[in-house]
Amino acid sequence: MTTENLYLEGEEKFGPVTSFLFGLSSVVLNKYYDAIVEDLRGKKFGSLLDLGCGRGNLLIKLAGELQTPSFYGLDPSPYMLKSAQKNLTKKGLTSRLKVKIGSSRVIPFDEKFDAIISSFSYHHWKDRDSSIATIASHLSDDGFISIYEHEVGRDRISKSHGIKESDWEHLEVEGLKKTVTHNNGLIILTLTR
Length: 193
Ligand SMILES: C[S@@+](CC[C@H](N)C(=O)[O-])C[C@H]1O[C@@H](n2cnc3c(N)ncnc32)[C@H](O)[C@@H]1O
Prior knowledge:
About 30% of the residues lie in helices and about 25% in strands. It has one domain (about 15-190): Vaccinia Virus protein VP39 (Rossmann fold, 3-Layer(aba) Sandwich), CATH 3.40.50. It is globular. The protein is an alpha/beta fold. Strands 3-2-1-4-5-7-6 form a seven-stranded mixed β-sheet. The N and C termini lie far apart (about 35 Å). The model has no long low-confidence stretch (mean pLDDT about 95). Bound molecules: S-adenosylmethionine. S-adenosylmethionine (SAM) binds near residues 26, 51, 53, 80 and 121.
């Protein structure tokens, strides 16, 4: 796995220590992962890409709950991906779920995706608007993008790591319709054709 730095200056790098600490604390995200699975359950897609998939926690949950044949994940952190790969192997999911090093700017898959999602990663991105444009070019004809974040203001984590509706007010992506929804502490940006 390459160790090339795919983070932009100013983006938090998930090195060995941060990745390990995230692993210890990520259990608090379980209730949000459940809400994301429910949000996606009603939608139709044959392939899904998770941007900033970290240790693969959400992907593993999705693969267990949904019939979707192909799941993909990418992350700029080789340390997060090493844990993701270990977890996928342990669960016997490596034929259905592939992870690669990449970023919101560098998407190293040839295929287009029906669903492109991201959880608790977008707030780290330093070039959010141009990343969204890059991501949109990897969507299939009927595809959609869903970005899941903590909504600002409900607790300590959401104050420092949250997104508010006004952060997306200016966002326009040619050919895609934007909606912003709220669900028990999550704020969700969805872009559909
Ligand atoms: C808080 S973790 C969330 C991991 C995972 N999505 C989850 O919900 O468990 C944030 C992740 O976003 C990744 N990340 C940071 N900047 C990124 C970027 N520009 N593009 C893609 N991923 C990025 C980090 O390496 C890290 O793994």
